[in-house]
Amino acid sequence: MNPPERPRAYIAIRLPPDARARIEAECGATFFEGKGAPSREELMAALANAEGVLGSNQLPMDAEVLASGPRLRVVSNFGVGFDNVDLKAAQERGVLVCNTPGVLSDAVADLTLGLIVALARRLPEAERFVREGGWGTRPGLALGTDVRGKTLGIIGLGRIGIAVAERAQAFGMSIVFHDVFSESPDEASFCSYRELDDLLAEADFVSLHVDLRPETHHLVSEREFGLMKPTAYLINTSRGPVVDQAALVAGLRSGELAGAALDVVEEEPLPADDPLTTLPNVILLPHIGSATVETRQAMLDLAIDNLLAALRGERPKAVVNPDVLS
Ligand code: DGY
Which CATH number do you get for residue 77? Predict the structure, then answer.
């Protein structure tokens, strides 16, 4: 009797040998060996006989791509975000979508606090100042502001938002939050709920921690920048399209807000000639919220666990669309 056929998986990110071996122990796997990510054509061709796919959460798993995998049972995202997957199409095709929640909350929260301090204390400007031969503060370098005693407005108090709030509390900040999806969210003991407009008017730092969905696309746009204090800062470590970037550039130029720190932008990678690159009051990072050795390892372990569990017919640890299971 022939041994049962092993499930086939397409692995769309480069993996270290131990991770490849874990997958190969259970699956017939095809690994993407190129640089960056597979092209759309390559992805669709590879999905023709795959039952599972593991890839970055930038991999475009839209309805057409999903349809190119008639045997597909699971999309395992290497990341907590899942805005790259057409959930409705996945649901219709009975495809499970998995992600990596929890394991990256600390890394993203650490980065967020780092950005708050960097904005408040003008760290990029100070660093450039030293390299250009400067030292000390005025007249060459303006003073920063204290973080203690300032108000942090968190939009989206999920796992990452809470981890940010905990850290901000230790920095002596007052914390207010807004939740886009719940009308009467539970207040954490040290955070108070605000309507969006009130939060924007009150906060000295506004930090975004929402998923990208139709309801959060351009959540912060021209009207919202108009409500912010001219001394306030925006921090975005969530998803670029949550912010209307053209409106942000206009607001930064006109002084509607004092500055911004962005780990994510509307078009990634950021085009070299994007107007954001010309603004001195912006800190730009290349989407590194989860980019630590420990966190990326934990994300990879969880993404592989999710993939293999689904292919075995078991319930994966982190499923975005559990309705598919029923
Ligand atoms: C996520 O997990 O969604 C992050 O953006 C990845 O870096």
Answer: 3.40.50.720
pLDDT digits (tens, 9 = 90+) for 186-206: 666 789 999 999 999 999 999
290 lines ligand 1 (CB under 6 A): yes
Q: In this structure, are 279 and 317 located in the same domain?
A: no
Same domain for 120 and 189, yes or no, is: yes
DSSP state of 278: G
Q: Find out whether 323 and 106 touch, Cβ atoms under 8 Å.
A: no
Residue 268 annotated among the catalytic residues of the structure: yes
Q: For residue 197, what are its two tokens?
A: 């407009």
Cα angle, residue 175 at apex, residues 174 and 178 outer, rounded to 5°: 155
Residues in contact with 79: Cβ distance below 8 Å, sequence separation at least 6, in sequence order: 56, 57, 99, 100, 104, 290, 299
Q: How many domains does the chain have?
A: 2
Please tell me whether residues 122 and 215 are part of one structural domain.
Answer: yes
Q: How far apart are the first and last CA of the chain?
A: 33
How much distance in Å is there from the Cα of 80 to the middle of ligand 1?
5
Distance (angstroms) between ligand 1 centre and the Cα of 155 equals 17
Q: List pLDDT tens digits, range 225-275.
A: 999 999 999 999 999 999 999 999 999 999 999 999 999 999 999 999 999
**Could you tell me if 155 and 181 lie in one domain?**
yes
